[in-house]
């Protein structure tokens, strides 16, 4: 794994820069994932508002702080994490099956015979696309979450958008969005690295492809949650 990471890091700074492949992968990561991410984070925001209101009313008999707390939770945690886990399921599984199939059908060996570095050709464009796509989708997911939370706050709790935004200003800082973008980039980097690592080690036909796909989703999901803990703990010292 260390050798694979070192080769990938070196490949990022080694020409040729495969702009066309990067653009193709960015379209696959960002545009093809946009609808499902926007839909899922919207429902996650609605559940966050409803649960926060229920528990605040139960504990302190007042839910006036729900909009502010929900906005903080969305920006610091919910948007980036839900986006990454959805990308892991969709993009990570796709990359693992694609690279795994290329491995067992000897297409990777064919690339080597043609003098093409598989790391530079397969891993680097996917890595860069997932980093950029992770940042873009995290920002879009956060904005979508806030809008959904604002709408349900108005319809269910009776707080107007003006009250919601005023409450946001009390709790949210600009660095919350910046930290969320850092999380999006780190989460995005993990997905293709894990997927391609397992894909290059695929064996035993269709059964092997299924195994590397499952391993990719499980390992990448665990890695994302661990990285989320490390980054969240680090960011708490920067406020």
From TrEMBL:
GO molecular function, one term: phospholipid transporter activity
Presence of keyword Repeat: no
Chain ranges passing through the membrane: 26-49, 69-88, 127-157, 177-200, 212-235
Keyword field: Membrane, Transmembrane, Transmembrane helix
Pfam families: MlaE
InterPro entries: Permease_MalE
The UniProt record lists the keyword Transferase: no
GO CC list: ATP-binding cassette (ABC) transporter complex
Protein name per Swiss-Prot or TrEMBL: Organic solvent ABC transporter permease
Species annotation: Bdellovibrio bacteriovorus
